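Lab notebook, bench 4. The sequencing result for the construct came back, and we need a structural model before the next group meeting so we can plan mutations. Quick request posted to the team channel:

Model the 3D structure of this chain.
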Amino acid sequence: MNFDGLTKLSGDASFREFYRKKTKKNSILIYAKKQKKKNLLIYSAINDLLLKKKIKAPRLLSHNYRENYIEIEDLGNHTIYDIFKKKKVNKLKYYLKIIFLLDKLQKIREQKINTFQNSNYYIPIYSNKILFNESKLFLD
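Done. Here's the predicted structure in token form:
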């Protein structure tokens, strides 16, 4: 994959790398050579599930799984932190939106979702063991 003309963005705690592609309609390229299934296929399938539940998430624009990347909609780089830095902002309004969003997420009951490769991904039931293992990541 050619990264010329792309701006590298800060990533998350996965093996994914994020690049902004500047065109008339910006997009984000996500590149992942390691754990491709988790970092590209499942990532995109979860975004699709969120969109179906009317929760804002980036839409898949294109994919080249063989070349280790997907292209998604660019939602911009405006964060809740940016909003809260402003002096005259009703933070309570945003906290309520966040609580309603978390409640909406908790109500999602799908266990099986389809990927862009027409395979099924079975969402694991979130258990105390998974919670503990994810919490340990902070120490790692």
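DSSP finds four helices and seven strands in the chain.
Will bring this to the meeting.
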